[in-house]
Design a protein that fits this description.
Belongs to the YqgF HJR family. This protein has a single domain, classed as YqgF/RNase H-like domain (Nucleotidyltransferase, domain 5). 34% of the residues lie in helices and 18% in strands. The chain has a 6-stranded mixed beta sheet, sandwiched between helices.
Length: 195
């Protein structure tokens, strides 16, 4: 009937390997989570003290900005992205239950814009993406309560747990759709209104 049959490519090209980071941006603290290079499981990393936008101050302390103008909280996340060879940093976008955006949403967008700029300045190619984080803090409280932990004493753990939930949701969405989750943040399209 004919010549040799050429093999058919049956495997889909997956997403490029690389750890993913998950960020829960709060007014006082930032929860940080990370995944393995294959993006299978999210685990807590740490809670980073938040630097107040525009002031460079961390809860009444002296300014904490680097020589390049990057705040200590953003610099810590950039360092983690570099150490883990992160492909993506997912930042939680806190919308209202109705889906509308408010002050916390604008703050998360501004933080993501600063993070994009700092990653670019460090020569890092990791994408920054905003993902819906409605109910993550509530879910983190419930999970810690179910595990027998008193949330009043473990606020930093709540931030990390919320970051894990944000990241795991993004990882699950990646696997389901075969593409990165969320909204890509680009420096030229997002402006920081807090500085």
């Amino acid at each position: 009937m004919g010549g040799p049959v050429e093999p058919v490519e049956t495997t889909e090209p997956g997403l490029p390997r690389g750890a993913r980071l998950g960020i829960d941006v709060g007014m006082a603290r930032i929860g940080l989570a990370a995944s393995d290079p294959d993006g299978l499981v999210a685990t807590p990393v740490e809670t980073v003290p938040r630097v107040l936008a525009g002031t460079g101050k961390q809860s009444g302390k002296r300014p904490v900005r680097s020589a390049e103008g990057t705040t200590a909280d953003v610099a810590r996340i950039v360092a983690e992205a570099v150490d883990r060879f992160a492909a993506v940093v997912y930042v939680g976008l806190p919308r209202h239950l109705s889906g509308k955006e408010g002050a916390a949403t604008a703050d998360a967008r501004a933080f993501a814009a600063r993070l994009v700029a700092a990653l670019a300045a460090a020569g890092e190619a990791a994408e920054v993406r905003l993902v819906d984080e409605r109910m993550t803090t509530v879910s983190a409280h419930q999970a810690l309560h179910a595990a027998g932990r008193k949330t009043k004493r473990h606020r930093s753990v709540i931030d990390q747990a919320a970051a894990v939930i944000i990241l795991q949701s993004a990882l699950d969405a990646e696997r389901a759709k075969g593409e990165r989750a969320g909204e890509l943040v680009e420096v030229r399209t997002v402006h920081d209104t807090h500085e």
